[in-house]
Amino acid sequence: MSGRTHARACPERTCVGCRERAAKSELLRIVAVEGTCVPDPSGTLPGRGAYVHPALVCLDLALRRRAFPRAFRVQGPLDTAELRGNVEAAETVAQQATP
């Protein structure tokens, strides 16, 4: 036997907020579109992507660290209002789903 397992490898990404590695499916992909951070849950939008846990804690850490402009390699601040609304909605749904 070669010691290899037959289980498929799960792609991992690093959260730009907390800097922890997690499965790609657990993170939310963010793309910069015309100076705005846009959530890309399907992962199909073109361009560079940055990943963040869908939690306000990680989003706030990423904003404080100015991680999005660095990840997208753009100058200046990016508008994150739409992204914040999406993450808040995801947290609300997650809290309602757990008893």
From TrEMBL:
What's the protein here called? DUF448 domain-containing protein
Q: Where is the YlxR domain?
A: 13-77
| Matches recorded under InterPro entries | YlxR, YlxR-like_sf, YlxR_dom
Q: Which PANTHER family match?
A: BLL0784 PROTEIN (PTHR34215), YLXR DOMAIN-CONTAINING PROTEIN (PTHR34215:SF1)
What organism does the UniProt record list as the source? Streptomyces typhae
